[in-house]
Write a structure and sequence with these properties.
single chain; alpha+beta; Nuclear Transport Factor 2, Chain: A; six-stranded mixed β-sheet
């Protein structure tokens, strides 16, 4: 009986740890890391935050799939916009290894004078190899 109770407790702790990792604060830290890499123009670091088979669904653009294509997309984007800031609004755990996030994004164009761009996004995070990675990323602008 004690063995069964210990096993149940271990299973509960494993799932509780996974759920804690899906908090808005944890996801916000990942978003801050993403924005920092993007704002430095480090497309390789940005792409490393995506799963190997991830999808980007940018507005007015074809689907972008896979690490090399995602890196190329963000490299081109960083030439046109910067000063990215992501704000996590809601995180919904989708089991112990996935979460859906809703948030807002602000950017500035690199044109003169710079113009602010405001939008919103929905992403799916997936835990792989002990790391949270972006699996699906879709966004659009408010105007």
């Amino acid at each position: 009986m004690i063995r069964v109770a210990a096993l149940v407790l271990c299973v509960c702790l494993i799932f509780a740890g996974s759920a804690v990792a899906q908090t808005a604060a944890t996801i916000q830290k990942l978003n801050d890391k993403w924005a920092d890499a993007f704002n430095r123009g480090d497309a390789a670091a940005v792409a490393a935050m995506y799963a190997d088979n991830a999808y980007l669904l940018p507005p007015g653009h074809d689907i972008v799939h896979g690490g090399n294509a995602i890196e190329a997309f963000w490299k081109a984007a960083a030439q046109q916009v910067g000063n990215a800031k992501l704000v996590t609004l809601d995180v919904l755990p989708l089991g112990p290894r996935a979460a859906r996030e809703i948030g807002t994004v602000t950017l500035e164009t690199k044109s003169q004078p710079p113009q602010q761009i405001v939008g919103k996004y929905a992403v799916v995070w997936r835990k792989a190899g002990g790391r949270w990675l972006l699996a699906t990323d879709i966004w659009n602008m408010n105007k």
